[in-house]
UniProtKB/TrEMBL annotation:
This is Phytochrome. Residues 219-394 form the Phytochrome chromophore attachment site domain. Keywords: Chromophore, Photoreceptor protein, Receptor, Repeat, Sensory transduction, Transcription, Transcription regulation. Residues 620-690, 750-834 form the PAS domain. Belongs to the phytochrome family. GO terms for molecular function: phosphorelay sensor kinase activity; photoreceptor activity. Residues 1-21 have a biased composition (Low complexity). It comes from Zizania palustris. InterPro entries: GAF, HisK_dim/P_dom, PAS, PAS_2, PAS_fold, Phyto_chromo_attachment, Phyto_chromo_BS, Phytochrome_cen-reg.
Amino acid sequence: MSSSRPTQCSSSSSRTRQSSRARILAQTTLDAELNAEYEESGGSFNYSKLVEAQRTTAPEQQGRSQKVIAYLHHIQKAKLIQPFGCLLALDEKSFNVTAFSENAPEMLATVSHAVPSVDEPPKLRIGTNVRSLFTDPGATALQKALGFADVSLLNPILVQCKTSGKPFYAIVHRATGSLVVDFEPVKPTEFPATAAGALQSYKLAAKAISKIQSLPGGSMEALCNTVVREVFDLTGYDRVMAYKFHEDDHGEVFAEITKPGIEPYLGLHYPATDIPQAARFLFMKNKVRMICDCRAKSIKIIEDEALHLDVSLCGSTLRAPHSCHLQYMENMNSIASLVMAVVVNENEEGDEVEADQPAQQQKRKKLWGLIVCHHESPRYVPFPLRYACEFLAQVFAVHVNKEFELDRQLREKSILRMQTLLSDMLLRESSPLSIVSGTPNIMDLVKCDGAALFYGGKIWRLRNAPTESQIRDIASWLSDVHRDSTGLSTDSLHDAGYPGASALGDMICGMAVAKINSKDIMFWFRSHTAAEIRWGGAKHDPSDKDDNRRMHPRLSFKAFLEVVKMKSLPWTDYEMDAIHSLQLILRGALDDAFKPTRAASLDNQIGDLKVDGLAELQAVTSEMVRLMETATVPILAVDGNGLVNGWNQKAAELTGLRVDEAIGRHILTLVEESSVPVVQRMLYLALQGKEEKEVRFEVKTHGSKRDDGPVILVVNACASRDLHDHVVGVCFVAQDMTVHKLVMDKFTRVEGDYKAIIHNPNPLIPPIFGADEFGWCSEWNAAMTKLTGWQRDEVINKMLLGEVFDSSNASCLVKNKDAFVSLCILINSALAGDETEKAPFGFFDRNGKYIECLLSVNRKVNADNVITGVFCFIHVPSHELQHALHVQQASEQTALMKLKTYSYMRHAINNPLSGMLYSRKALKNTGLNEEQVREVNVTDSCHRQLNKILSDLDQDNITHKYCPYQIF
């Protein structure tokens, strides 16, 4: 769908949400229409033609709500499953069967090689108690699931049939008031996973996760190529693709790997209707979807007639695919598929998330895309491996979020740099013509194919812009139709209702507009999307005729090209924000050019800033010094030569070296010989502006402390900067880890008697928790109870990942899903033998307070050196240290704010001075007498003096009223 949008009354985040809702509603209607056409048309279904027809249908003709409702009901509550497993729906109170698949009696209740008796009643029917079908361990495990808020934490549950002895994976979820259980046979060659199989599944993906985490940031292409390669190796499918959704919901094969001889789809784009909105909703709920054989006959579900609601199969791993999708698969020779959803944070810059905000109020999620696997023959992937793929997709999503954030920062820097250059050009020349006649120009601000400026009744065109008469016609249309808006953006002038769109052709489809005032306008233009599309696959043979009735990737690509024939790439929110910022700068520059200078007002502002800034900086500095001196953690500082110029009381207490003895000594003389290279590197990098975190080194002890051995510190380096942003020293904020190391050493020596250490109430013992090899919480010491507010008996024997720690519905909530995935990686890496030291970690305690800390995860082994679980040690910085860091950040932000204010005022003063300079140059060429020339020269000298003052942004000089005067 395409629409124009005014740019004056809404923030970028609210614009995104509004347009997204409208697009999804419209797209769902189109999906329903196509589905109805497919169901009614039989063999005459022409997919390509219908997609194009739906695009051109007027919105008021699409209000067929009954078809939409029927379509959504059919997608979510179709009573069919795939035949590779069977399904039971259970009443949670009685544990009796309320619905079952037709193949369930044969799979779960038939004796192997037994001949069924005609008179014998069936062992599985409506009302059968499920305990009678399975041996005690499996039946007990199924019943235990009832006590879990999130039953999926136990998946898969290993059960064994009483009659046949066959093992099955039971995959449990809740739906429409029932406990729905999918049963998948365990293959004879497969090693069955036990209860809490999630941890076992994670081990399968350990290598792939390690590969993804080792990638350097900055390349989405490299990230996607790596994940498809790892999934390809892990699952063995013939084709694996990273399928990315664009802002208008159409899809693109962004990365791909295939076995030899298979036609690639890399670079293909698909219309949004190829993956309906209802299917995307299901992917958000059930993030892994497997189709074993698209040619296999589906199995019906038999329900208890007394049920008030049909059993929903939305969360079922066995849910049968829609017939339309099955036909699509078969046409492209994909008989089996496995699809994983990639769910990321919505990029809404207007919605700032506080660090201590509860998890339930965190960022909204959206479906970024899918990892799609295809196979040319039937293929079944066991649930543990699918679970491993799901976790791999979650790790991939975390890194996609990081790439988004990095890309956003780079875009912001680029746009700010370009805005600064354009602003300087405007300030120098006091005319908007400089932003179209010079270099850079307005085309460099956002990606476009052409631009234009309509100013003072004249038009300046850049590259692929419409003709002057066409631009005047567009300006007239904007004045008539969008009189009250300050701007406009559209990816299709045709869809936006511009009557002359067809005359512009394919080269001008999208347009962004910013009005400087009612008569003067800036334009940016884009050509049609198809010009941007590059297909990396095999070229289509012109001699081959397409059968438009068959749904196939090539026809989807063709349909997509038809849909976007009159559309450009959409204008993103950050691009419109950049345009809007330039609009405001241009308005301000033009206003200033016609207004007298306000020297007295500026002088008053400077005076206020001097008083307020001085008092604020003095208060912040005093508070910061006091906190550093009284902090309960060691803090030391050095100058640019490495000489100590700061040494607080805690550092003196730990090392036995008094403050007056430490000041002036080189830092390298105070650390142990083994730590000298580490400190040298840390100091060198910090003086270059690269601040290292969580670096461990040892400091020598002196006097009465000498016999205690070295002090072990974990240190964060913080570069000290002057107001010119030059690094002048380094501050080391440390955490004393000596006691922690002693505890760890003692733990290692007396592993068999660790409880005496863990549950010791001594305040020197850090918070410790642990889990066994199956993921059940097995340790929770007194310090952990004090830190979290949760008693030991409230967490022991609960799932550590999911019940104790999770992003929702857990005792200790972590900040978001990304943080939970990171914790899963730490725990599972330790279970695989890779221990972690002091990783950043955070969670909310029982009272909702956010705890920031460091987490060390160590494996627990038995006498045979077999890993039996993990121990986790938490290191919490003191309140004084946290406060000191907050004060330091506030001080830096205050200084930066003052610097920005002075910079703005400099630009504001420079503008009229530039005008005066121009006037004086003009005067010199008018035949002045000697006295007049002398007066002009004096004025020039005053101008140079003012420039010298304005170029000095030393905040201290301004605060103390010092100006570098030049004698003339």
